[in-house]
Amino acid sequence: MRKIYTLVLAMLVVGTAFAQKSPDEFLGYKAGERFTPHHKVVDYFEHLASTLPNVKLVYYGESVEKRPLFVAIATSPDNMQNLDQIRMDNLRRTGMVEGNPSTKVAINWMQYNVHGNEAVATEAAMMTFWEVVNPVNAQGKEWLQKQVLIVDPCANPDGKDRYTVWYNQKVNSRLQPDPQSVEHFEPWPGGRPNHYLMDLNRDWAWQTQAETKQRIELYHQWMPHLFVDYHEQGINDPFYFAPAAKPIHEQVSPFQHEFQDIYGRNTAAKFDANNWQYFTKERFDLLYPSYGDTYPMYNGAIGMTIEKGGSGRAGLGMLNALGDTVTLEERIIHQHAAGISAVEVTAQHAERLADEFAKFFKDNSSSPKAKYKSFVIKADQNPARVEALLNLLDKNKISYGFAGNRSGLRGLDYFTGKTASFSTTDKDIIVNAYQPKSVLTQVLFEPEAVLQDSITYDITSWALPFAYGVQAYALETRLDAAKAYEKPSFDQNTVSGKPLTYIAPWYATKHAKYLAALLNEGIRVRIADAAFEINGESYPAGTMLIMRNGNQYVADYDQKVVSLANKFEIKLATSSSSYVDKGKDFGSSDVAIVKAPRIAMVGGSGTSSLNFGEVWYFFEQELDYPISILEADMLGRFDLSKYDVLILPSGNYLNGANFNKVMDWVKAGGKAIAIEAAVGMFADKEGFSLSRFDTDEEKKAQQKTDTEVAKVERLEPYQDRSRMGISTTAAGAIFEVKLDTTYPLNFGMGDKYYTLKNNGRRYAYLNRGVNAGIIPSLDAYRFGFIGNKLKPQMKESMVYGVENQGRGQIVYLVDNPMFRSFWESGKLIMSNAIFIVGQ
């Protein structure tokens, strides 16, 4: 009987081994023959999870277009039985969970296809995961004894399928590597971003997008030791892998440096053995905190970016500059090799990865390394902005508390850039670095990152007090909270009687959401154009007045006004009279009615898909207000009289007949809002006040300077030319903008705003128009990199302005006030431009 049982068991094992299929077998085509749609990727991983006891799928959410987001988890059978213990033990290493770990298993998370048209990644993910979990692969079993492997095969399924569906429609049945063939020209907006055309690889810390929010929630449940992010780069570049380039943030630990080198050498050996080209320590740095390599780094992991040459243009195969055909099959195999290398080195160094991970949190939480150890957020002036900032800290698991009443404190005043004395109240907030999220806290609050090299891949300043427009101080010493934070309870508004006017504040994004909601309900809203006093209370310009007069025919008027205010947690005041103690009475013709604007935005060829996405997301997911999208190439067909506001995202796409058509519409009473590069479409043209230079003499002087610089650059050694080039660029430099507080574009902003300057565009003050926001002098510079030739040009320049044209206006937003949707304070400027300017 025992022999029969053994025979049956052996047959079952063999049967199980043959039940699993490789990607080629399951999909019905070899890797590299075509791109796989997301639903088939899901099917394949479900197949493996259903046939292998040591594979588990975790669905952590869905994309905007309702595609599933999931990770596949693989480890040894013993580890799988103990999986939750391993996970909780790892959280104990961070200090986020109390207790001492009893297991020591490395956690290796590999993410693929966060940029949708870098679609080789998902194909490689299937190949790599299969090799590791294949039951006949003894080496794979050995690797999995030492680690939990987490694979996200497609972090951006909407972008991935946008690319895959388009490409599979355009591809030739016979390989066509000609770069001029249609399959190598992806149309606008391309598959790189998500549904809202946002770059998910720059959203980690900010978590503005649905995919990121859901993924980071799962990330915090695991806190991996290694995080590898798979990408593609231009077809003429071979392959990049760690170690990273400089600048590398000073908070990166010695072991994080060392392990990047360990991985790099292990991967190089595999590539050398196959005579594959690669490079390391160039281009891709470790600074900006919201990438798929830096965010894990600042959370104790070894974060690494992998970049294979090819990207969306390459398709199934395309000629590079050398005349060689770079095929999809080659790209898959190379990324697969880099993935196997990551699994291999994780297994080889599993115990040390766990130990060094624990050391990272223990050392930093007890002795923070950066200059500033504590941060005080003043909450008395703009509590709604502070609330938004605290929501971001919550998403990142950063702890904070109430400051209490203290005096005699000294710290760096973010707004002035100078050390100053200050005191705190029991409403102010303290965030210090003596906590598990020590490094991330310091990085997000640091006024300016230390640059080992000025050539950076992204912005160099992102400090949260500037992004949220809140007064704050950075201290070089430890300052603990006096009391644990408890979110203040919101005292619900109630419907009581029939007040003549409801009074609502206007200084934060949620107030713009409230306005949009009221307009959607057909409720008429007025805006006070100047400060006023009533019932013993003072209110600034921009305050919303929701008056019964004009709304008497709105069904359930009071209930709607009050319930919407409660939804957004906005405290309303009321008045039974329109007579004010100071200022203009509510019936004044200067108290403007906000007409619910009919809004369109230009998109398509020539427009920046990223800036377009920022605005589109703002309307759909934040304001919840209708917006029409007009293709730039089809503007000539459209009736613009159907719209009151036309948003022109960054780009250069209005010319000839289309430019004239837009200007005719503006002069007839329309309002155009031009952002970043789109501002340039109106510059230095006859009939416009917008100019890049103050005078003709200045223009000639600049041209002379440019010629002299060009001569100098030609004499520079060739290898130094990229360094010379950055002298005329800005990489996230923060400037204080002086605002005209009397003008509607700045209502609710206070007298200062801090702009993030990511371009070298400079415009003179408007001669005919409103210079709503200016940089008056170089004293306005605060932090972040700006080239030494560009910086002097910023003085006496216009940042935000409005020019009348006929009966309409053009709003010039030289700097993007909504950069990546995380520059929260700028959203109110955009809201003013949309709803209030010109009313």
From TrEMBL:
Superkingdom field: Bacteria
CDD domains recorded: A4_beta-galactosidase_middle_domain
Alphabetized InterPro entries for the sequence: Class_I_gatase-like (IPR029062), Peptidase_M14 (IPR000834)
Domain Peptidase M14 residue range list: 35-305
Keyword RNA-binding: no
Cofactor(s) listed: Zn(2+)
Family matches, as Gene3D superfamilies: 3.40.50.880, Zn peptidases
Single GO molecular function: zinc ion binding
GO cellular component, one term: extracellular space
Coiled coil: none
Signal peptide stretch: 1-19
Pfam families linked: Peptidase_M14
Gene Ontology biological-process entries: proteolysis
Keywords noted in UniProt: Carboxypeptidase, Hydrolase, Metalloprotease, Protease, Signal, Zinc
PANTHER family: PROTEASE FAMILY M14 CARBOXYPEPTIDASE A,B, SLL0236 PROTEIN
Family per record: Belongs to the peptidase M14 family.
Protein name: Zinc carboxypeptidase
Organism: Belliella pelovolcani
